[in-house]
Structure formats: C-alpha cells, structure tokens
C-alpha cells in the first residue's frame, strides 16, 4: 500500500470496525446513506468558516448574521436525504440544537475573539516518510494567530464527547503539518466543544513531532499488515452506512432491530 494517503478518520474507522474499514478503503463500497448528525456537523462547520471569513474581510458578524447563515445552509436541497437514526428524534430537533450551538459560540467565543485568522478549512497532505511514500492528510478547521504570535490549531466538535487536546492524536498530527509549513517551535492545540460549550487548549512543542510521527507510522503499519477484517458490532451499527451489506450489523443480540429498507 505504498503511496497511500492516510488520515485520522481512516485510522479511527479501522479501530471502530475493521470490516467497515475494508468496505470503504479496500473494496470501495459507497455508504448507503448519510445521517442528520453528519449534516449538522457540516453546517455548523460551514457557518463558523463563513463567519471568520466575513470578519477577515471587515464585515460585521453578529448573532443574527450567524443564525441566518445557519438557516440558509441547514435547509439544503438534500436535507430530507439525511437519515434520522435515533429513535424519537426529528430533523427539526437537530436544527434547533445546531442553531443553539452557533448562537452560544458567538456569545462565548466569537464576539470577543482577538485572534487573527491565518487559514480556514485548510487541507494538507504531509509526507510521513520518504521510503514508502505514506502521506498524512487532514483539514484544519481554523489556524489562528494569537496576540503573542503563537499559532493555534482549532478543531470544532459538535458531538457529546469532547476530546482532551493534551492527548488528542488528531490535533497532534495536524501540528506536524504546521511545524513543517510554518517552522514554529510550538503551537497551541484548541478543541471547541460546541455542544458542551467548552474551549479546551494545550501547548504542544515541536520537540514532540518525532513521537507523533512514530505513532502514526506504527498505527499505519499495523493496519497495512492486517490479514482479516472482523466486524465489531455495536450500537453504532445503526449509524453505519455499510449496514445494508454487513452480515453482522447490530450484533447477534440486535439483529432484529436491523432495518431491511437500508
């Protein structure tokens, strides 16, 4: 698999379910559906990207501006195509949650944010080693410059779980790119937990780049060396876009809940 592009989402999918990994990355099976949670996350990210871009152009971004941007993006032509999996939930309830997230973020962070935007939704591909051509790809939600000159890598999270930036391998891997591109000796890692309404930060020095690179290469080598791809059934199977082809979707104790229409 020399020359393969790797990412945090790719490695995470293998950890969650090797069979789902095989379907997506080895067999090229397309997801049968997308979920309302995916739509929610994308819309919130897009609103914040547009808000910081507008502010960088000198525009005025207040709470109503963010709300209007959210509503415009939420009501996309394909809205009905995003599946609501959670029992008893509705798309309208998710819309209200997302609107509350961007409104709270404006009041809690955006309105008083004195950092300078360096880049938004910055896509990168970083060579991990010269011998195999393995590359690590990612998208940095926002790269900001603090008043003291420190670069801050910001990642938005709309889920219930908020990772700890002190140990988050996703942000640490993004730091490798910033170190290589910007020649910084340290960065600040920042996770914005939008649902929880928290901002978590951690200092990360360039001296740890080798450690992170070694970890990524070891994880990649382990996945490349896999000879079997067992399913790992869990409650997440209902949200998996491969459950229409997976023989173990939902686990033995949950097969009766599998929706054949998927």
What does this structure look like?
- The chain is an alpha/beta fold and 262 residues long.
- It is 38% helix and 20% strand.
- It has helices at 8-16, 18-26, 36-56, 63-74, 91-108, 169-182, 209-224; strands spanning 5-6, 34-35, 82-83, 116-127, 135-145, 151-157, 186-193, 198-205.
- Strands 1, 4, 5, 6, 7 and 8 form a six-stranded mixed β-sheet that branches. Strands 2-3 form a two-stranded parallel sheet.
- α3 (36-56) crosses α4 (63-74), α3 packs parallel to α5 and α6 packs across α7.
- It is flat and about 55 Å long.
- It starts with a strand and ends in a 38-residue tail after the last helix.
- The relative contact order is 0.15.
Report the portion of residues in β strands.
15-25%
**Terminal Cα span:** 32 Å
Helical stretch tally:
7
The whole-number mean of residue pLDDT values reads 93
Radius of gyration: 20 Å
**What does the overall shape look like?**
flat
> Element order, helices and strands?
EHHEHHEHEEEHEEH
Largest sheet geometry? 6 strands, mixed
The count of DSSP E runs of length 2 or more, i.e. the number of strands, is: 8
Task: Work out the helicity level.
Answer: 25-40%
Structural class: alpha/beta
Assembly level: single chain
Low-confidence stretches: 252-262
């Amino acid at each position: 698999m020399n020359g393969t592009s790797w990412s945090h989402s790719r490695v995470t999918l293998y950890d969650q379910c090797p069979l789902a990994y095989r379907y997506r990355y080895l067999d090229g099976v397309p997801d049968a559906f997308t979920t309302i949670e995916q739509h929610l996350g994308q819309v919130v990210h897009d609103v914040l990207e547009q808000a910081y871009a507008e502010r960088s152009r000198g525009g005025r971004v207040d709470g109503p501006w963010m709300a209007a941007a959210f509503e415009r993006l939420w009501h996309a032509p394909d809205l009905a195509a995003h599946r609501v999996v959670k029992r008893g939930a509705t798309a309208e309830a998710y819309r209200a949650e997302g609107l509350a997230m961007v409104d709270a973020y404006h009041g809690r962070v955006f309105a008083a944010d004195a950092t300078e935007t360096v880049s938004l939704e910055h896509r990168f591909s970083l060579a991990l080693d010269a011998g195999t051509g393995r590359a690590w790809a990612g998208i940095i939600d926002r790269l900001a410059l603090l008043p003291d000159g420190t670069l801050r890598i910001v990642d938005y999270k709309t889920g219930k779980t908020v990772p700890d930036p002190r140990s988050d391998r996703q942000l640490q891997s993004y730091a490798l790119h910033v170190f290589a591109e910007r020649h910084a000796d340290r960065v600040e890692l920042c996770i914005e937990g939008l649902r929880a309404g928290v901002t978590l930060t951690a200092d990360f020095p360039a001296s740890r780049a080798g450690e992170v690179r070694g970890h990524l290469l070891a994880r990649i080598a382990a996945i490349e060396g896999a000879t079997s791809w067992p399913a790992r059934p869990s409650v997440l199977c209902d949200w998996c876009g491969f459950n229409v082809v997976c023989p173990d979707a939902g686990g033995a104790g949950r097969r009766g809940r599998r929706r054949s229409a998927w």
